[in-house]
Design goal:
single chain; 286 residues; alpha/beta; Rossmann fold; 45% helix; binds S-adenosylmethionine
Length: 286
Amino acid sequence: MTSTHEQWDIVSGVGITALAVASGRAGESRRADRLIEDPYAQDLVAAAASPRLDALTGASAEIQAAMSGYLGVRTRFFDEYFLRAAAGGVEQAVILASGLDTRAFRLGWSDGLRVFEIDQPKVLEFKDTALGELGATPAADRTAVPVDLRDDWAGALREAGFDPARPTAWLAEGLLPYLPAEAEAQLLATVHRLSAPGSRLSVEHVSGPRNRILSDEILRIGHEWGIDLADLLDTAERPDPGDELTGLGWSVRREPTREIAAGYGRPLTGFGSSFAEIGQLLTAFR
Ligand SMILES: C[S@@+](CC[C@H](N)C(=O)[O-])C[C@H]1O[C@@H](n2cnc3c(N)ncnc32)[C@H](O)[C@@H]1O
């Protein structure tokens, strides 16, 4: 499918944010008190070999601690979500805007479970090449679905072998802040339409006014990394995704990120603690 939307790769546009969070997971994996271990994150960051990365990987210890601290919590939460879903009988997982998420390679999935990863073509191309060169082997039946989430991604997913009659675990991690309001509404409606009974969806959500995420601190750090977050994030107001899912008949659990972090015994610092104050991780069941 030819997209009419702008394209990016792993070092441009929203693509570089996938690299930024992978560098956070690499940092988390090196911590003595790590909540997750991503054995591919560091090599994926290195494989991108972009001068813009020097700023990312050379960030101050304080910024790196804030980044890895927050990403450790979010990654661990969604790892557990998928593991519970697999144990609970879902047969498919769909990672919306998968970026450099390596869960298909590093989680203990149940036999026969299919993992679909959706992201822009050049992002997935970079990831597949880099993981191939690292000799990484998927731990599930993994299929990359290169498509823009503002286009007909449901059609691409079905063509890739997704079966809407089977229960599915969906994930939207680090995605909604970048999506225009119409695309977000479309995304939730499509997930609903493609979800058999027994399906679930987990979402990273920023509560309250959308522009709360754009604190002076986060804008300054973004600039240090050559990332203009004010340009990348879509701050147009839209309905709360938890309320939308409830309206569609899903049962929604909201967990404030700061409580999840406290449950893991992880003190958050810097912008990680600001994110946790305004963040909620939602899990919805159909
Ligand atoms: C912050 S990264 C998060 C990646 C991954 N979920 C993670 O947590 O590591 C944002 C990702 O969203 C993807 N993305 C944003 N808008 C998208 C769109 N319209 N279509 C497809 N992918 C999109 C980007 O390419 C990027 O990989």
